[in-house]
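Exercise: predict the fold of this chain.
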Amino acid sequence: MSAVNATWPTTLADPVAGPLREVVHHFEEELRSDQPIVRELCARLAVYRGKMLRPMLLLLTAEAGGGVRREHITLAAVVELVHMATLVHDDVLDEAELRRRTATINRLHGNEAAVLLGDYLISHAYHLCSSLGSQHAARRIAATTNTVCEGELMQVAQRGNWSLTEEQYLDIIRRKTASLTAVCCELGAHFAGMDADAVGRMSGFGADIGMAFQIVDDLLDLTGDETQVGKPVGRDAALGKLTLPLIHALCRAEPADRERMIERLDAGRFRLNGHHAPIRDGLDYAASMARSFVQSAVARLSDLPSSDARDALAAAAEFVLRRRA
């Protein structure tokens, strides 16, 4: 289906293909406006709506746990609205000009419009969430959005800190990325009627997926092909954001090598040298940690009854390690 990016196997969405189409329709209906500028900006969001990973995880969890209900369609649209708001705001924070090989909203319309559009998406997420009879989802989405913002604020505060620890990095990505994938699976399970233990396991599955996804994203920023990634690589280091491969490399480097790496990072001219032993070790270490999170995620599915949806969840976890965009 067109809503799933070609970098993400469309077969993963097969068990929930119909509900995903409803989510896209729900999403588009929610953002209808009589204002031309709002319609123009929202039309550009089609580029940002790439893999539909978060709605897919929510719906697959629901299907694996007893079946997709009307609440799930609404919630899947809500989490995608929140996710896209974070992307629009991230592009402003990172001064990004390209996303998925297309000019970003901030590049085309300026930072003011991009910030306001992100706010507009968040407000619509809560407007849509309020249509549900229960306030449970609204409270969980609100709490998660707060956590995402905390993670982003922590990352901004740590720019240029070449002594950032692995523990600090993991805390940041747990908040800014994994918390949203966790709540997707949590809400999918909760509204499918799964018991509290199962809801907790699925929340953990989503968190593990999010951690692996972000680590792979950080690896791609160092090693990816720009034509596949769809945006310039090397931006994290240029912006002073240390990610796991470089954290590990700096920790393991000899003092002289560490000093040279920091000089290049300070000057904003760090270039990856995959043959340099500390860098190579850092890349391997990060890839190994991503694999560990995926293995943990798949293990959490063992108590689910056998189904196409459970198989798709496991396949989605495994594919996180192979993605190139």
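Check your answer against the key: The longest strand covers residues 98-99.
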